[in-house]
Design brief:
- This protein is 51% helix and 7% strand.
- The protein is mainly alpha-helical.
- The protein has a two-stranded parallel ribbon with strand order 1-2.
- Helix 3 links the parallel strand 1 and strand 2.
- The longest helix has 14 residues.
């Protein structure tokens, strides 16, 4: 949600890191995320897919080790771990 994004932007700026919000239509947003120089990936479909094809620095989980809430779903575990290990 926009409220969440603004809160996240504030938290990033509190770390003395500049943060700009860039958004267009879904295709433009996907392209921006897929080519970002440094990208902290989300754990939902749109973020996960764009991070999976991003050739630059992708931070899959800032918690280290990853604690994705959806790892509890056994059907996804192997696929997610393979993607994480591939990008790591």
């Amino acid at each position: 949600s926009k409220k969440y994004i603004l809160k996240l932007k504030t938290e990033i700026e509190n770390l003395n890191v500049s943060c700009n919000l860039v958004s267009g239509d879904a295709d433009e947003d996907f392209t921006i995320l897929s080519t970002a120089k440094c990208y902290i990936a989300g754990y939902r479909g749109f973020g996960w897919l764009s991070a999976s094809i991003n050739p630059n620095e992708v931070i899959w989980d800032i918690q280290k080790p990853p604690e994705f809430p959806w790892l509890m779903n056994r059907a996804w575990i192997n696929q997610l771990i393979e993607g994480y290990e591939f990008r790591k």
